[in-house]
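Dear Dr. H.,

I hope your travels went smoothly. While you were away I took the liberty of generating a structure for the chain from your last submission, since the lab meeting agenda had it listed for discussion. I wanted you to have the full record in hand beforehand rather than looking at slides cold. The sequence, exactly as received, is reproduced here:
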Amino acid sequence: MFSNELVCDILEYIHENLNKEITIDELSFLFHYNKTYIMKRFKKEIGLTIHNYINSIRIYNSLLDFQADNYILSIALKHGFNSLEYFSETFKNIVGVSPSIYRKFLSINSNISNEEITLICSSIGQLQSLNNNAIKYLNNRKPKEMPVKKFIFK
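The corresponding predicted structure, in token form, is as follows:
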């Protein structure tokens, strides 16, 4: 069975616009569906609300930047978060630790507990799985039908 076309369109839109603000109202307007229908259909197909999916993918994409960027605020802004507080709160909810503890986890001489290490590794695995499942979902999209070429006989 193929993936739902609307959900595929929404996933593509989200991934193309991750650094911008994305609202349910905007998605409803763009795809010409009722907000409630969009939210229910997305949750049914993906297993997360649109809001939680967006935040999870943003956090997942931000993880690599912790090695290259010294400022957590610039990482937050780069990945579509409007404030350091909201980024930190979302990061902690998704990864299980604060951004500063995650940065310590990446350093060679980290002084974090085994519990925090386990939590981080588990969360990263879940985020990778979410990303991989979204890619598989998109790859299972029904192929666009090729136009039928009509032959004209004289």
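Two observations you may find useful: The chain has a mean pLDDT of 91. The chain is about 65% helix and 0% strand.

With kind regards,
E. W.
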